TrEMBL record:
Assembly mode: Part of a complex composed of FtsB, FtsL and FtsQ.
Entry function: Essential cell division protein. May link together the upstream cell division proteins, which are predominantly cytoplasmic, with the downstream cell division proteins, which are predominantly periplasmic.
HAMAP family recorded: FtsL
This protein's UniProt keywords: Cell cycle, Cell division, Cell inner membrane, Cell membrane, Coiled coil, Membrane, Transmembrane, Transmembrane helix
Coiled coil regions, renumbered to chain: 27-54
Descriptive protein name: Cell division protein FtsL
Database matches in InterPro entries: Cell_div_FtsL
Family affiliation: Belongs to the FtsL family.
GO BP annotations listed: FtsZ-dependent cytokinesis
Topological relation to the membrane, as annotated: Single-pass type II membrane protein
Organism of this sequence: Luteimonas yindakuii
Domain of life where this protein originates: Bacteria
Amino acid sequence: MTRFLIAIIVVATVITAIGVVHARHQHRQLFSQLTRLENARDELNIEFGRLQLEQATWAESTRIDQVARERLGMKFPETADIVVIRP
């Protein structure tokens, strides 16, 4: 009877040890994945900041005015060229 009880305790201990090893292994894998994802997130945040800065630069009204004048040949109309239409 005692040998049977000891055998059950040994088997339960081995099963529990295997469960602990499996849980720790899974924890390490998930932690490694979390670290990679956090690094990717940080890189994306840096890139997003760069893109916001670039967008702000390209969207400045003086830049738009300069491009409109140089590339498209646009200019403000003269006062004589403005026609007001009333309903």
